[in-house]
Amino acid sequence: MLKSQRNVTPDIAVDVRADFARREVVLPGGETWRPTPTAGIEHYVLERIDAGGARETALVRYAAGARGPGGAEEFLVLAGSLHDDTRAYREGAYVRNPVGLARAAWAGSGGAVLFVKRHQFKVDDPRPVVIDTRTARWHRGLVPGLSVLPLHQHGAEHVALVRWAPSTLFKPHQHWGGEEILVLEGVFEDEHGAYPKGSWLRSPHLSEHHPFTRVDGALIYVKTGHLGAR
User: Fold this and answer.
1) Fewer CB atoms < 10 Å away: N or C end of the chain?
2) Which domains are delineated in the chain?
């Protein structure tokens, strides 16, 4: 998904994009792959709140056979495969392992790249989720050119994949509880800029925008309602 970059020294224990009242955009190459304390696993940190790593959103890259401890996390497999003692999660798998469901995991022979959100579950949201997005049923969106694959809903929080056909225009709208987007394919745009594959956006509570696509269309992961009324 992102070009390989030279390894650098491990992270200094600092927060990263920790102010949810700010709009944040990370374009491809805007961060650096850094080693984690676990051998064979690197991460590309998009947000981290609490220097101890209590909450983190990142791209995570496993070398072939690398093993991680698991934990309370939501992840989408972007490339390769990840395995635990129950199953294999291949490219396109969406997984939620809530608090209390920690499973050690390891990468397949081709390694793995994941989009991971750690320690961001509500205490009353204990339901594990596994969805193969390659075979799941998509639904028609709110405007022509949009199709939606719902992944999870709990309270105000909604998670989905949204496919935008080329030249699709959505109505201007406001984000109650904020919005987070990872661009998986194509180019997603709004009045603020263009966001190619690999871009990550986080918009605060009550932010507004007018999104659209041009010739390439786009596929995005989108989460709304999880940032709170700040």
Assistant:
1) C
2) 30-130 (2.60.120.10), 137-224 (2.60.120.10)
